[in-house]
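Thought: the user wants the 3D structure for the chain below. I'll pass the sequence to the structure tool as-is, report back what it returns, then summarize two notable features.
Action: structure_tool
Action Input:
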Amino acid sequence: MPQLQVTVGSASGLHARPASLLVQAAARQTARVTLARPGQTAVDTRSLLSVLALAAKQGEELELTAVGEDADQALAELAALITEDHDAPAAR
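Observation:
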């Protein structure tokens, strides 16, 4: 089961906009992907409320784990969304 450490990139953390983009991208994946703080219970990346409940802040390290077909591809795509600063002027 592939796993990847990612750092939250958005200045305001994993708030509504980046969380929504993450959930939408996760819903398109064949693999099931979860997100968690290291050592804590993982949440389904397809659940907006669960992702928002993490209240992840900029610079915080999180673990992405994928199970299923195209797991590595799913991790790469979702990791890119988490690490991007969606609050930067060019991202809007």
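Final Answer: Structure generated. Strands lie at 3-7, 32-36, 43-44, 61-67. The chain has three helices and four strands.
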